[in-house]
Amino acid sequence: MPHTAVSRSHAIRRALIPAIVLTLGAPAAMVVHATVAAADESAADDAAPQDGPATGTLMLHGQGTAKSLPAVRLGTDMDVTVTGQVARVRVTQAFRNTSDTWMEASYLYPLPQDGAVDSLKMVVGQRVIVGHIQPREKARATYEAARSSGRKAGLVEQQRPNMFSTSVANVGPGETVLISIEYQAPVAQANGTFSLRLPLVVGPRYTPPHSLTSEVAVADANAVTAAPVLDPALAGKANPTSISVHLAPGFDVANLISRYHRIDVAGPLADRRVTLADKTVPANRDFVLEWRSASADPDLGLFAQHTAKGDYVMAAITPPANLDGVPRPPREMVFVIDNSGSMGGDSMDEAKASLIHALGTLRPQDHFNVIRFDDTMTRLFDHSVSATPDQVALATRFAESLEAQGGTEMLPALKAALEDAGTGGGNDPDVLRQIVFLTDGEISNEREMMAAIGADGGRSHVFMVGIGSAPNDFLMERMSTIGGGVYTHVGAPGEVAAKMMPLLDVLSHPAVRDLSVRVEGGSLDLTPARMPDVYAGRPLVLVGRSDKLAGTLTVSGRIGGKPWERRVDLASALPSPAIEKLWAHRRITDVEADRALGKLEDAAADTEVERIGMESGIVTRRTSLVAVDETPSRPAGARLTREELPIELPAGWDFGSLFGQDAIKTVPATEGSGDRAAMQAQMLELPQTATGFLGTVGKGLALLLAGMTGLALLLRRRRA
User: By the 8 A CB rule, do 97 and 170 touch?
Assistant: First the structure.
């Protein structure tokens, strides 16, 4: 494969020297290897070798292919309890060292973008070690000190709101260490359907070369792109996952559907138990469970939690879904479709089918354009044109001709769409200006995308359509929220029509306008700070904090020119144990949105995020969970080998489109580079036998429960 290298002179003292190696033509223009070295003009070129990369050097090593199973095997169990409209999830990962050396393992894993992680426990033999929340740098230092001294340690860090990393140090030959984290997240709701999404895989991310401007930027890209991808021949053998769901939403459940996995269902309608029919599944696509109420669709969900810090409430208020008779104004629609390499396979078929379906709903009074992008970009028309039959037919043929290749340069396409919106409808305020963005969103420069939408000033509404088995939900949700639209996920070719029809119905109607919220007889510190656009059949979810929960919450607005209002007695809220953490997570989302939009300086945002994270005990960009076994286990002098565990290729992705015929390999060590074993995955040829993780995880869960019971008894005795 051809490569391009870019470098600069280091004549300027402490200059940043980017050396970027790209693979072009496969999504790859994914960054494969990048170093940013801090150079000193007075430094000698023949400095003494060091242990590890040279000082000031960061390595963004390959989105390469793991040709064999790793030495540290991984198995995952997910236990979920849905109460009302909140899910509590316990993820237990078993790290089993099958080699004869001491190992440190790291693994990137996904979480819902609105999930709040608040618990970490590590099981070592018969001991349960409870993790503690610490500021990010302190937690990392605690972990590294334990690793160096031979003690077992676990660390959970946030890389993105929907992407975390687990590291576990000093796993001895033949040992298994369990890491158990817990998080909670709200259950999604749209048009009467409730949805639980459990992300199982992190898709490979594309890093635009222009974003690698500093050591910090390269370190960030490394954190979200460094994991190797497992060879498809070994699919399903790297991280077998078991899932069980206790579904108690507060009403009788109807139309219970698992979108992508076979399930077994037991129990009464109001208390369903869901398990995987196949016991375990590969971690290569998200698990999605949907249900409805057996009676009338609920239009209100109200839950409260009373704590020593105050009272917390969550209200999900749904505007009426029936908009018959509401006028449908003309629209100007700019469709943006991703045809980069990561869209190869089913994803490209789904995106093209979704676009063609949407084009078929255009009316003569509408205007439209189509923009396609990979690491290049094409506008079908110079500017938006009238949706005549001939123009729509031309756009349909254009969509049908697209093939997946190249990198994922989303930012230029987004800016082009924002510039184009408004050219076809003139300055008519009644024209709905809408951008429909079809992509998997697998990029690392999310912040630039949000800033571009914020700079548009609300002139256009942005609707994200996530394509494929494991889209970047964080990017999709945040872009939709900032852009005043909604997010829709199309996860399989067979559901294009079922998912696009409700979205297109939303696109044909205005949002609830002049939205306002007030509390009478009390006060609430509400999130989100900025009211989002709300569409018929989709709830407005408010989370608030108060010294004492009381009064009436009133939400009002106008739908199609007609007034709409809903009043809620806060005292009628049902109890829930999860609202405090959700409020903290939503407040952090407000802070991060202000940062992305340039309304808050980085330092001030960091300080506020860390304060909220420490106060609420949740993992954030500035706080982490760390657990340390105080008993040293690795013998003095025994070498510790680091291994980055591979991720599965998301289901439906085309391996050839992503990596080309020959899988990209990690950059080999070169003379003078030091020992890179600590930073490059050491893939060992191991027998591909069953791992027996379910039994190990079951025993570990029993130990966790026993440890928690013992801890509760100890605390009770101390209070006595």
Answer: no
